[in-house]
Request: fold
Amino acid sequence: MATLEIKDLHVEIEGKEILKGVNLTINTGEIHAIMGPNGTGKSTLASAIMGHPKYEVTSGTVTLDGEDVLEMEVDERAQAGLFLAMQYPSEITGVTNADFMRSAINARREEGDEISLMKFIRELDSKMEVLEMDQDMATRYLNEGFSGGEKKRNEILQLMMLKPKFAVLDEIDSGLDIDALKVVSKGINEMRGEGFGCLIITHYQRLLNYITPDFVHVMMQGRVVKSGGAELAKQLEESGYDWIKEELGIEDETVGQEA
Amino acid sequence: MTVETKMALTEQDVRSFSANMNEADWMAEFRTDALAKVEQLPMPTPDKTKIDKWNFVDFPAHAVESTTFATLAELPAEAKEIVGDDQKNIYVQHNNTPAFISLSDELKAQGVILTDIFTATREHADLMKKYFMTDGVKVDEHKLTALHAALLNGGVFVYVPKNVVVEEPLQVLFLHDDAQASLFNHVIVVADANSSVTYVENYLSTVDEAAGQANIIAEVFTEDNAKVIYGAVDVLAKGFTTYVNRRGITGPNSRIEWALGLMNDSDTISENITHLVGNGSSSDMKSVVVGRGSQKQNFTSEIVHWGLDTDGFILKHGVMKEAASSIFNGIGRIAKGATRSNAVQESRILMLSEKARGDANPILLIDEDDVTAGHAASVGRVDPLQLFYLMSRGISQQEAERLVIHGFLAPVVSKLPIEGVKKQLTEVIERKVR
Reply:
């Protein structure tokens, strides 16, 4: 079992503190969901874990099996087993999706032990089939001209090809219609297992109808303010966030406001 | 500011060179007329690059003697990689020496001409007189064109007769492996009515330093409804002062497509202009550039619309590293009367270091109302978010930059018509950006 541990994490962007002491422990085999209204720091947490250049960690720790993640370069974090499915994946002209994924897979392997082209293609084909993606998506330039839904599927395709220990899915459900949502969920559920831990960031409960989380956390004002099981998500769907605010005496849940 | 143009060569030198090369008599006259003009003509004035300190006139030798090749198998290894074993239609020039030529019997029977420029002055005098420095590049445009005409010491003549479609690309290799050599090469490609041809040329220096001049002119003509695809990869060594002028003239409903990999290590002035003369003609002008070291380069890509319903598209992508600097002039010009023309251009420069300089200079000069035009230009660095994205998949920063750069140059690289040449360009880019 592997463990991703986030302790008292404080993160700034352009001098403004967004995360104000996040604590979270995720083990492989577990699926966690972080919910919360917009502007409460959810995506910042995702980006900071992966090492986004705009976010500055001012204090706290992130460790993967005791290793200091914050000391690692972005590519080293990926090599160590982290993956971030991004809300806004970059478009890269001239680099085909397939070439990119092969480079990413081979980056994890020793020189001379690169994945064979046949094996790669077989695997790519089968994952694309799960995600109901057109075959031509492999030869198109990375994310260029992809629709919102295609980009999200492509993020999950990479997740399935790269098989990380931990994945952070940043609003993977935004902009998806119900059919696409089902397909994406199918891909994520296929990853589910002892060797895989997942942190799903969303502000809609609907994704969690298809992927049942083991733990649900609510973020407000840059902290995790409440945690529970799958039933917490149901409760939020039925009653919204107001009861939590009331319970905790929060008037404005967004970052920058104090309880 | 004066430019020293004290010519080392006299009229007598030029005449005896012409005789040595066994040229037609008219060519000797052409040369001496041009030589007489060199002195009084001004230097060209590439926009935004000062060239008054550049030396375009001194060189150690007008022409050097190099070996010929009995078969392509005798080519040096670097050249062999580009050429491929089954290239049937090819001309190889070794420094200044016509070194190998092959044209399939089928094409010969159809009347296709592929020959060195000296032979062309004798055997195809009528065609040469019609196309050589008449309607394309003129002798008296400036000092360097006149100098070129006087000192021309290599090049190739290609003619495709009416209604002939040449399926296989014609390849020309200018192999440079003598540091003393200068290249005053002249290329003429003529596609007569309803014909089409793909022409690919390589300038390949296999020595690291050059002491000579590269003053290169290419003229491309498409008659009615003809099509020329012109691919080039220039890899000339540091030390040359390079002036390369590639020009196209289109007849009605004809088309010229350019795909240029401009990979010189020398200081370079490159000018690529297509005149869309015939109604309904079009040109697609794609170039990629990589600059490194302290190289200074100026690239002008221009399409001039004269005919009705003409269509021009300029795409230019460049990468500058170390202290290299370059100017990208993209010019779309629509003359009065060229109604319903369309002039579109895009120039992008990626800078890989603090000291690298790039200037994208888009210009639209429009003298007609009923037209469409557009331009896009950008100069920037590698997007940190793109790098973050790639690195978040485990790809190292170096590899991520490599992917972004190759991707950035891919739209032109992928257009090159010969697989070996495409591969060569990819490898040159790889070597230059590393």
About this structure: Residues 137 and 247 of chain B are 7 Å apart (CA to CA). The mean pLDDT of chain B is 94. Chain B touches chain A at residues 383-386, 388-397, 399-400, 403-404, 406-411 (CB under 8 Å).
